[in-house]
Amino acid sequence: MTTTPERAAERDLAYDVFSRACPSRGTLEHVTGRWGALTLGALYDGSFRFNELRRRVDGVSEKMLSQTLHALERDGLVHREAHPTNPPRVDYELTELGRGVAERLMALIEFVEGRMDDVLAARGRYDETRGGR
Amino acid sequence: MTTTPERAAERDLAYDVFSRACPSRGTLEHVTGRWGALTLGALYDGSFRFNELRRRVDGVSEKMLSQTLHALERDGLVHREAHPTNPPRVDYELTELGRGVAERLMALIEFVEGRMDDVLAARGRYDETRGGR
User: Fold this and answer.
1) CA-to-CA distance for B101 and B108, rounded, in angstroms?
2) Matching CATH number, B15-129, of 1.10.3720.10, 1.10.10.10, 3.40.720.10, 3.40.710.10
3) Domain limits of chain B?
4) Which residues of B touch A123 (CB under 8 A)?
5) Which of A14, A104, B4, B99 is deepest in the core (most CB within 10 A)?
6) DSSP secondary structure string, B85-101?
7) Which of B28, B104, B109 sits opposite A107 (nearest CB)?
8) CA B54 to CA B41: how far, in whole Å?
9) Are A54 and A60 spatial neighbours (Cβ–Cβ below 8 Å)?
10) Choosing among A10, A11, A18, which should be mutated to test the B contact, i.e. which has the most B CBs within 10 A?
11) Which residue of A has its CA nearest to B132?
12) CA quadruple A38, A40, A44, A50: dihedral sign
């Protein structure tokens, strides 16, 4: 891990997601996109075959999961291992880099899951005062 | 914070982003969506007016920023403060809940920014062996 808690200073790195032209913005979108985040989160538990992953990431289509895995593999976050068995078996697992991303993503996911009662209460208050708009 | 490092056990909470019907999935999408993540990240630095935020979140349209702020406000992550000045002034800032989300999001963003050299190197290798597909 190359970052430190000194955020303001650290943010003056070569890469800055706040700049629209920075390539880090695209990678952030791959890892936080709807299916990217859930796929990395699922792989945090270990190695999966394609169909196992599809069951875990409830609601993803075959096409979207395939695209998501390709993008994550290209960014060096997921390793695809084709075993020369008959029938051939393909496993997906996190790389060291992908594990670092998934760890931070899971911290975010668990925080959100753990505070959903507060989120739903806030929504109720908002909809009451704003008339549901 | 209600989560602990015992991930597998903790994930058996009432809320589970991996289930498509769980409301936590929608909230995860609000906070990790393209503009949601950058808006929360920007507000992590303090309170902003609408136009200041728009400059910070490079590339966002007025309409998208407005929609993003409404969704984050409704989820209880952002507080909107309208000051009775002339002309009226509206400030946006994180709530305590929003700060908890933004902290974890910034840890993710900084990790990705800090490892972009590795990501770009992986992309180069992938495109070479796959012929750029």
Assistant:
1) 11
2) 1.10.10.10
3) 15-129
4) 74-76
5) A104
6) -SS-EEEEEE-HHHHHH
7) B104
8) 13
9) yes
10) A18
11) A74
12) positive
List, for residues B54-94, the tens digit of each pLDDT value: 999 999 999 999 999 999 999 999 999 999 988 888 999 99
Summarised one tens digit per residue, pLDDT across range A85-133 is 888 889 999 999 999 999 999 999 999 999 999 999 999 999 998 764 4
Chain B window 5-44: which residues touch A at a Cβ cutoff of 8 Å? 7-8, 10-11, 13-20, 23-24, 27-29, 31-34, 37-38, 41-42, 44
What is the rounded CA–CA span in Å between residue B21 and residue A59?
9
- Give yes or no for B123 touching A (CB within 8 A): yes
Domain A8-129 top-level CATH class: mainly alpha
